[in-house]
Amino acid sequence: MKNSFGSSLTVTLFGESHGEMLGATIDGLAPGIKINHEYIKNKLDERRPADKTATARRERDEYRIVSGERNGFTTGAPLTLLIPNENTKSSDYESLRDTPRPSHADYTAECKYHGYQDYRGGGHFSGRITAALVAAGALVAAALEARGIYIGTHIARIGAVSDDSFLELREDELKSAITALDTPAPAFLNAERGRKMTEEILRAAECGDSVGGALESCIIGMPSGVGEPWFDSMESQIAHILFSIPAVKGVEFGRGFGLCEMRGSEANDVYYTDGRKIKTKTNNNGGILGGITSGMPIIVRTAIKPTPSIYTEQDTVSLSNMTNTRLKISGRHDPAIVGRARAVADAALAIAVADMLAVRYGTDWLSGK
Amino acid sequence: MKNSFGSSLTVTLFGESHGEMLGATIDGLAPGIKINHEYIKNKLDERRPADKTATARRERDEYRIVSGERNGFTTGAPLTLLIPNENTKSSDYESLRDTPRPSHADYTAECKYHGYQDYRGGGHFSGRITAALVAAGALVAAALEARGIYIGTHIARIGAVSDDSFLELREDELKSAITALDTPAPAFLNAERGRKMTEEILRAAECGDSVGGALESCIIGMPSGVGEPWFDSMESQIAHILFSIPAVKGVEFGRGFGLCEMRGSEANDVYYTDGRKIKTKTNNNGGILGGITSGMPIIVRTAIKPTPSIYTEQDTVSLSNMTNTRLKISGRHDPAIVGRARAVADAALAIAVADMLAVRYGTDWLSGK
Amino acid sequence: MKNSFGSSLTVTLFGESHGEMLGATIDGLAPGIKINHEYIKNKLDERRPADKTATARRERDEYRIVSGERNGFTTGAPLTLLIPNENTKSSDYESLRDTPRPSHADYTAECKYHGYQDYRGGGHFSGRITAALVAAGALVAAALEARGIYIGTHIARIGAVSDDSFLELREDELKSAITALDTPAPAFLNAERGRKMTEEILRAAECGDSVGGALESCIIGMPSGVGEPWFDSMESQIAHILFSIPAVKGVEFGRGFGLCEMRGSEANDVYYTDGRKIKTKTNNNGGILGGITSGMPIIVRTAIKPTPSIYTEQDTVSLSNMTNTRLKISGRHDPAIVGRARAVADAALAIAVADMLAVRYGTDWLSGK
Amino acid sequence: MKNSFGSSLTVTLFGESHGEMLGATIDGLAPGIKINHEYIKNKLDERRPADKTATARRERDEYRIVSGERNGFTTGAPLTLLIPNENTKSSDYESLRDTPRPSHADYTAECKYHGYQDYRGGGHFSGRITAALVAAGALVAAALEARGIYIGTHIARIGAVSDDSFLELREDELKSAITALDTPAPAFLNAERGRKMTEEILRAAECGDSVGGALESCIIGMPSGVGEPWFDSMESQIAHILFSIPAVKGVEFGRGFGLCEMRGSEANDVYYTDGRKIKTKTNNNGGILGGITSGMPIIVRTAIKPTPSIYTEQDTVSLSNMTNTRLKISGRHDPAIVGRARAVADAALAIAVADMLAVRYGTDWLSGK
Q: How far is A181 from chain B (nearest CA, A)?
């Protein structure tokens, strides 16, 4: 599968950072889904660098759907969208060819592609490719919303500062919290903590440095009974796609690593009913038990490493000479990608759950027809 | 795919906790691999409950290979191994049918299988199924060792106590550290901390409670250049299989969630060379960059939730009456499964990397022929 | 995927002709399907050698379901069935090890498995493996019948003699014709031609020779709109599984190769309606257009080569000496396998269409719940 | 997978006949393959309508590679090629919307896509999509040639007239025969029979009718030992992709359906050796035994139905009124597509065998590096 994800609903990505264009093909979309261009544009805006917390490279990300659409609806045939690259400065990267940037994919790409990779701007490894992922995922997410399934992501942590958690909200507060996150600005649940996290980013930027962070995502409205015990658990599918996003180094559900410190008597999510629905009082399992959705909100957190591109001089090697050397990276970089990654996580989650739903309920389910 | 994992090397699991037998089929094994039964038995011993930190249910786990083997070598045809169930007490579970156990898969199984699931002992969701996974994975892991690739897992945390980390060991210390973990006893890098962690488990057991923990695994000897940028990154594949193991709620690579608190200047793994090989001074990325192996050790940590079965009475619901009720679980349970899960993590990792290697280098690679 | 077939409903086969047992795992079965053991036994009887037109090796084919079943219904977990091998005479094959039998898989197995393959009785290539396929397929076919989808196969040709064709029957005659084929005896649409075809087999048997033939299968009750234009057309999926059956060398739909000689004006299936349904006057396309079912019966013919095992001495080579030599095959063989292959084709078709239906309508569709 | 084919090397198709553009993404290409644009252009010319035996719609088929290429070599990242549509006359099709054309996919598309399909010119079902398949397959085929594997296809039959067969050629004659087929003109092994077949086409065209035919393809240079017994036999994979080509209704290997009439003593391919290589005296199995290549040439024949578009008035139905009606198709059509389908078969075969080779020998194999 490689550059494709999904079984009944499949997304294929292609393109390089400094190539002519990038794109995505979504296959297995139900026919008759109204394509919500405004929704897609908003999500691309959320991903786009907007302020001082992000890179100076600015692109319009104008996508074009060239197949699988007719009169504003999906046809059921594979839908391909293309996004041209505009604002590329390849000369920035020529000097880096021989000296791999620490914690970037330059060296591993060399190991795998033997020098044939497009090394300009990270090539196919670039965060730039996430623009196509966001466009594809947003198209799917808008269709999920029409089916009552909402996805949202906030910045949960920057450096030493943490935001509030979806786990602390009541179920009836989640939808408005998710909706409030639909904004191109870095978005948090707690405004005060948000300010502190933004300061952390700016402080790192001032030093020519970068900083890591975490995202927390929430999916509400998921039917119960979706997922598999082995090996395609809902956690497995979601983690699979999240871990392919550049810079993601950790994924946890519900209380995640926090469960290591808990006793069963604290950690267990006990059931209750109002006579119509069955729910749990806590959601430490993040809406998934035995790999299968319980109908409770899916809560997942994602660790994002600091942007590897920093302005400080670093140790590296010369691949051609096999000698030690030093490297100073110029170019335009994000001091933290965690803010822009919100839209990417939303897109990835939309694709993962839409695929699982299509497997479960058939290929027409997403259109509601 | 569901109950199968892998592309070139595929493992399929079947069986239920209280069924006649469970088993695994490994397809895509290179012909001519010497089957290392001692290795497999040792790994099954590591998974088997052994002392007071584990359940009182004891089984011999005597596997039988019924296809794909001839004269002690793999034939290249699908290899199926069967493990009979022996020590089942189904009556323990009859009373639980209507009242789902909190944080078990009972309720989500009901949502998915509409009452037809085998609910005895957790059925196909049971940790018992991991016996077949361990046997299959150990068969593969022994073949990987013959190719110079070693995998080992220690208990990294129980409750509030942490073990040392593979990340703190020098590369030349890793192999002996990994080899030392090949023991049925709960295994740690630091004996003193190990004692404390064992005490944590026993303390929870005394209260009829359970406790969570974390595992840390290390893979050494991996060739560089294996994995894909999108979507089949090495992290994606490993997380996919790890998250299908019951009770796993978090997976992180290298420093993982610790990267959220780091600056790029600290987190970046800078390169150096001795003129022959290229390495990084730190391994905060856990041996994977851009989804592709760098040749550095792969380091992955797994969060394991507390065993949901505890002896305290808990809230739950009656599914038939849709009323709130209380539940007291009897039966035999592990106060912590993190110790037994070590062998399961090793097995899962062996399968994931062997598949990626087979995709990369072809279906004969694992045999070295 | 290799030894597995299917996406939403997957069948994995394992076992060797002279191994301990063979089996199949069916994954993705909807929960709550009543397992129709009588149906399965009948289909195994159809596959079993019964008279002089078949091999003297006789086995009871007593399958055992060891997982995925509870109280006679599928649970939704992977269902594994095992069939022990009983009547094996491995000494028959020892002399053949070095001298590959013409048109068997002996030589290609050697090329692929480098001598590690289980060469006894054809090992994993043996027609014996089809017993597990038939059991799995029959379990699925019985569930399809409960959903109104019927599958039947007759011997369409032996040597120079042809049977009538399903294409000549009226739609209302098909169901009884299909039902009449549920018999262990070699089954035909036209009894008189059937006698002649049986004579062809016996004549070949008398000379110690074998003879080829063709099967024609029919599937009625298929919903329209199932299949994909690229690349998973209904024809592609059906041909994929049929071509994995040993000895199958051709597959054609509707008029198949007969279309090469036709003009469009003759070949086109024109539409008509009775005001409620849309049908075609002819069915030269065999119920599939653009890879998608039209609701007309699916008609597919399969070419089966003559059993390669004959009693005449044949040219071959010594693999160890790389010299030319001669070979005389003893052992027990079918003079024609086309009769026994009927049940195998039915099983393969059941699996292929059930998978396509599960992809289209979701994983619960087959149970009708 | 749907619109994707392949496991290690995957091709995804997108686009509609009258959309903005069509295209293909090839994923899993080894890095460092020199892209042979002349080869690709020649194959596109072979597919392009050229003379009176083909449609009057003429397009330049100018493909553009927008990702996965750098400096004329593959990078190893997914390679996407785009082909704009130019010469579309959508008004030709407006009248057809309600009245499905017999033996086209119009009606089954309606069943599957509920009216949302792009019905203009057959949309995603159109033979036009094969331009992208040919470009992708030709790129792969050129790489296979560099590895010593040659593929060629001739018109084996039109109406009642048959060409010679690859099965009658000596092995040393095959390469030049295959090379001679690299021409945009309808190509045959026997010029005299070729003239007669061309006359058959022209005679059908004069009547406003169309005619069916068969293709015969040959692959030489295939290593032995490639393919799987169950279910991914070499025949299964090849048939899978061939049956997704519009108008293909039959696929046979070696003697194919001719084997129905043969005795084992005639049909068996006996072995011989010159002391270095092992070959068979005949090739009735078409180079594949037990699903695995033997090293003999792969021979496969494909039945192509007559072009459904004919100028005669035909019966059909009105979908909106559910009444019977008549239809006269105008527009531009091929009286026989078998000639243009040669390049399509070559492309499909290249993709199928390159994928099987990549699975067998790893993802770098195709580049020879």
A: 21
Most confident of A138-142, D179-183, D309-313: A138-142
pTM of the model: 0.97
Res B344: pLDDT: 98
Helix (H, G, I), strand (E, B) or coil at A277: coil
User: Cα separation of A159 and A146, whole Å?
Assistant: 36
Residues of C in contact with D252 (CB under 8 A): 249-252, 257, 303
Cβ-in-10-Å burial (0-12, 13-18, 19+) of B223 comes to: middle
Q: Report how far Cα C269 is from the mean position of its chain's Cα atoms.
A: 28
Q: Which residues of A touch D13 (CB under 8 A)?
A: 78
- Segment B47-50 long-range contacts (CB within 8 Å, at least 24 positions apart): B47/B130, B47/B131, B47/B134, B47/B340, B47/B342, B47/B343, B47/B344, B48/B184, B48/B340, B49/B334, B49/B340, B50/B184, B50/B185
Q: Give contacts of A7 with chain C, Cβ < 8 Å.
A: 7-8
Structure tokens at C265: 């004006």
Is residue D361 within 8 angstroms of chain B, CB to CB? yes
Q: Which of B105, B131, B140, B133 is nearest to B119 (CA)?
A: B105
Average pLDDT taken over every residue of chain B = 93
B116 touches chain C (CB under 8 A): yes
Give the per-residue pLDDT at B93: 66
> pLDDT tens-digit profile of B156-178?
999 999 999 999 999 899 999 99
Instruction: Provide the number of structural domains found in chain A.
Output: 1
Count of helix runs (H) and strand runs (E) in chain C = 9, 18
Confidence of residue C91 (pLDDT cuts 50, 70, 90): low
- Residues B61-113: pLDDT tens digits? 799 999 999 999 999 999 999 999 986 666 656 667 799 999 999 999 999 99
- Inter-chain contact B365–D365, Cβ cutoff 8 Å? no
* Mean pLDDT on A13-23: 95
ipTM value for the complex: 0.96
CB contact D1 to A (< 8 Å):
yes
CA distance A214 to chain B (A): 6
Distance from CA of A232 to the nearest CA of C (A): 12
Instruction: Name the pLDDT band for C89 (thresholds 50, 70, 90).
Output: low
User: Which residue did the predictor score with more confidence, A49 or A158?
Assistant: A158
User: Which residues of chain C make contact with A360, given a CB cutoff of 8 A?
Assistant: 362-363
Neighbours of chain A (3+ CB pairs under 8 A): B, C, D
**CB spacing of D360 vs B361 below 8 angstroms:** no
> How long is chain D?
369
- DSSP secondary structure string for all residues of A184-224: SS---SSHHHHHHHHHHHHHHHHTT--B-EEEEEEEESPPS
Q: Which run of H or E residues covers position B315? A: strand B314-318
pLDDT of residue B282 exceeding 80: yes
Chain B contact present for A13, CB below 8 A: yes
In which element (H, E) is residue C202 found? helix C191-206
Shortest Cα distance, chain A CAs vs residue D330, angstroms: 24
H or E segment and range at residue C265: helix C264-267
Which region, left, alpha or beta, applies to residue A195 given φ > 0 means left and ψ of -120 to 50 means alpha? alpha
Contact C25 B14 (CB under 8 A): yes
Q: Whole domain around residue A209: which residue ranges?
A: 4-367
- Please give, rounded to a whole number of angstroms, the shortest distance from the CA of C149 to a CA of chain D: 18
- Contact between C297 and C287 under an 8 Å Cβ cutoff? The reply is yes
Q: State pLDDT tens for residues B229-247.
A: 999 999 999 999 999 999 9
Contact A2 B112 (CB under 8 A): no
Task: State the CATH number of the domain containing residue B9.
Answer: 3.60.150.10
